[in-house]
Every structure is written in C-alpha cells, then in structure tokens.
C-alpha cells in the first residue's frame, strides 16, 4: 500500500517521525509538510499526483488539513 502523509508545518516533523518509521517498515510511504492555509495551491497539486492509496493528514487543532484533503480526493483520508 502506498501512503501519503501530509502535515501542516515542518515544525511538526518531530511529531510524525514515529509514524514515518513505523509506516516505512511495511508500506511505501512519502511524507511532506504542506499547509492547507498557507500553500493551498501546492497541496492541491500534490494531491493531484495520485501516487498513493491513502492519505494520513494532520495539522493543528482545527483539523483543516484532513478536511481539505478529503474534499479534494476520492480516496480514504485519515486525520
């Protein structure tokens, strides 16, 4: 399974490192920091590459990033 993990800020990288390491053991996984608020066109372009089976998205308390991802693609999004 190909997993695309997207999180809202490079400052959050440390929070996602355990997930990254775990996913890499059994899945093909890519990780990127793209803010839905600051870089929406970049996020939409990245989601359009369609080189993943599922998305794991997380950023802040408002959960805007998972919601935007779910609104833009027809694949499973975990937020």
What does this structure look like?
The protein has 79 residues and is an alpha/beta fold. Helices cover 39% and strands 25% of the residues. The chain contains three helices and four strands; from the N terminus they run βαβαβαβ. A four-stranded parallel β-sheet has the order 2-1-3-4, sandwiched between helices. β3 (54-58), α3 and β4 form a beta-alpha-beta unit.
- Helix content class: 25-40%
Poorly predicted segments: none
Mass-distribution shape = globular
Order of helices and strands: EHEHEHE
Calculate Rg over CA atoms: 11 Å
Q: Terminal Cα separation, in Å?
A: 18 Å
Class from helix and strand fractions: alpha/beta
Proportion of β residues? 25-35%
User: Tally the helices: what do you get?
Assistant: 3
Q: How many strands, which pairing sense, and closed or not: the largest β-sheet? A: 4 strands, parallel
Strand order of the largest sheet: 2-1-3-4
């Amino acid at each position: 399974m190909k997993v695309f993990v997207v999180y809202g800020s490079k400052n959050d990288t440390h929070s996602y490192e355990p997930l990254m390491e775990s996913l890499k053991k059994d899945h093909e996984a890519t990780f990127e920091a793209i803010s839905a608020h600051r870089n929406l066109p970049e996020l939409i372009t990245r989601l359009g590459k369609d080189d993943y089976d599922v998305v794991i998205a997380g950023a802040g308390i408002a959960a805007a990033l998972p919601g935007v991802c779910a609104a833009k693609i027809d694949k499973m999004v975990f937020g």
